[in-house]
Amino acid sequence: MTTTNPSPAMSGKIPYTTSDFATSPFVAFYEVTRACDLVCKHCRACAQPLSHPHELTNSQSRTLIDQFASFPKPPTLVFTGGDPMKRPDIFDLVWHATSQGLTTAMTPSATPLVNKEAIKRLKDAGISRLAVSLDGSDALTHDMFRGVSGSFDRTMDILSHAEDVGLTTQINTTITRRNFNQINDIAELIAKKHIVLWSVFFLVPVGRGLAEQRIRPHQYEEAFEMLWNQSQKQQYAIKTTEAHHYRRFALQRLGIDPGTNGSDLASHGSRVANQPIKDRIQRAPLGVNDGKGCMFVSHTGAVYPSGFMPISAGKYPRQSIVDVYQNSEIFKALRNPDQLEGKCGHCEYRSICGGSRARAFCVTRNPLAAEPDCVYIPAALRTESLC
Predict the structure, then answer these.
(1) Which CATH number fits domain 7-336: 2.40.50.140, 1.10.10.10, 3.40.718.10, 3.20.20.70?
(2) Cα 148 to Cα 143: distance, rounded to the nearest angstrom
(3) Kind and range of the H or E element at 80?
(4) What are the phi and psi torsion angles at 335 (to 5°)?
C-alpha cells in the first residue's frame, strides 16, 4: 500500500530487503521505445508515433537484459515506453528476459495492438503481469486524459482478455486536479475487475506533465485519507508512486512511532502494506525511491534513477548498468537519507519516505531538496519552533 513500485521476485528466490539497496535495484524499467499511438497529457516521455532512429537494437537490448540479470539480486524488469507493443521484437525480448531468470512485467498502451492474441503471446513468453492505465471513472475523463477516443473501453477489454488467459493485472492511475475528485469512484470501479494492485501515481512535472496541474500539498493528505479507507475494504492492494509521504501517513494511522531512526521501521513493512499479492510479485520493502532500489534505462541506453528524474547517470552500452547503479554519484547520493536537505533532512521518516526525489528535482532542480508537496512538519522542527 505504501511502496514505491510493484516488483516481482520469482518464486524460490531470496527476498529483496533494504540491505540490497546499495548493490541491486528492486525494480528496473527498460523503456524499449518512445513510439506510442496515444497522446497522453501527462506523458513523461513525450512519446511520438515513430521509433527513435537510435533506439537500442535487438542485440543491444538482449545484452542489456543480460546485465539486468547479472545484478547480485536481479530486479523485476518492467518493459515500458512509449508503448512497448510498438517494438516488433517485444515478444522475443520478453522471452529472453524470462529465460535469464528475470520476472517481467509490462505497461502497454491501450491500443488495438493489445488484443487477446497478443496478451496470450505475452503470457506464453513469460510476462508475469500487465499494468494498464485508468485515469478516470468514466470514458469522458479517461479519454480526454489519454488523448484518444475509445481508450477507456480498450482498457476494459485488456483487463477482460488478461483475465481470460490467466494473466494478472494491475491498474495505474495518475492523479491530477482533473481527476482528484474521482479517486473513490475509480476505486469502486476497478474493484469489479479482478486486479491485484492499484498503483496510484502522483504527477511529477516532467515531459508533457509540465502542462498538467498537480494537486496542492494539502490535497495529498485528502487523497491519502481516501486511499487508506479504500485499502481497508478492497481485495486488491493499493500503493502510491511518487507520493512517498503516504508511508508516513500510513505509519501514523497504524500508530507506529519512527523514533529517531527510520531504518528501524523495516520490520513494520508488512503492516504498512495491504494484504499480500497472490502471484510472483514481491511487494517492495519500505524505502524504495528514485535511485534507491529503482533504476530506469531509456530507449537509447541512458541510465536514470527513475523515469521521472531526467538526470543521466551513465550510458549503456558504453557503461555497465550494474556499475552505474552501484557507483554513480547521483545514485549513491539518493540512497543516503542523511544527504537530504530542507525539512526532509530533519524528518524522522526520511529513511522510509524521503519524499519524491523526482518531484524535488523537477520543481527545484535539486534532487536532494525537500519534497515540495508535503505538508508534514518533522518533529525536530516542531521542537525547534517551540524553543
Answers:
(1) 3.20.20.70
(2) 6
(3) strand 76-80
(4) -85, -5
> Domain-by-domain residue ranges, the chain?
7-336
- Tens digit of pLDDT for each residue in 241-300? 999 999 999 999 988 877 534 444 444 544 444 444 445 556 778 899 999 999 999 999
How far apart (Å, rounded) are the C-alpha atoms in residues 328 and 313? 6
Cα 153–chain centre separation: 24
Check: CB of residue 238 under 8 Å from CB of residue 198.
yes
Neighbours of 117 (CB within 10 A): 10
Helices 217-231 and 183-190 pack at an angle, to 10 degrees, of 30
> Whose CA is closest to 68, among 103, 34, 17, 92?
103
The model carries a pTM of 0.89
The pLDDT tens digits for 326-340 are 999 999 999 999 999
Helices of type H across the chain: 58-69, 90-99, 116-125, 139-146, 151-165, 183-190, 217-231, 245-253, 269-272, 321-327, 329-334, 342-346, 357-364, 379-386
Omega before 112 cis (within 30°)?
no
Q: Report the distance separating Cα 231 and Cα 238, nearest Å.
A: 6
What pLDDT score was predicted for residue 384?
59
Stretch 231-241: mean pLDDT: 94
Q: Which residue has the cell 502494506?
A: 273
